[in-house]
Amino acid sequence: MRGDKFxxxxxxxxxxxxEHARGHRPGGGGPFGGFxxxxxxxxxxxxxxxxxxxxxxxxxxxxxxxxxxxxxxxxLGEGPSNGYxxxxxxxxxxxxxxxxxxGSVYPILQQLQDEGLVAADPADPKQFTLTDEGRAYVEREYxxxxxxxxxxxxxxxxxxxxxxxxxxAALAMTYKQIEVxxxxxxxxxxxxxxxxxxxxxxxxxxEDLRETPEG
Length: 215
Fold this sequence. Notes:
Elements: H1 15-22, H2 68-78, H3 83-93, H4 102-114, E1 118-121, E2 124-130, H5 132-142, H6 158-180, H7 184-211
């Protein structure tokens, strides 16, 4: 499901929106109306839209970090490339969770060149390819391991995050079905359920904060 069917953010917190949901009258556009403004989850932050604003790896959590050396070598194992394309490809394959900086990629390319694992194209010094030694190294070191953008350090388990997004989308669809039914009592009950879920999620967050050591 695409993010443009959902809310574009949620200023002001969840509480007031759930209060509005419990008191909502059918036909008024509703807190979930068309999954537009007022939907009480910022689904963009969960990855339905571009992941740059509040998504995984940004915001309050530690940004996922990967093995830049491994990423460069694995991608060069697929074919010649340059630093710019390597950065873009890592970002794309990690779905925006990891974007290595030029300051990390280009020194790695130089180091690998010094080690004899990669070589610059004489016709285009910015273009790099694996040497025979480099291909053997990649096969030996990374042939049987997941690519580094699938094993990020500091990020949540990717499959669990994806499952959470699917559950959140299903929740939105279910609420929409209740809202369009036209029964005010059902909408109010749905709002109560959402408010209870919100409080339980906040309790989980509070537990995590208590268990996280400072510094």
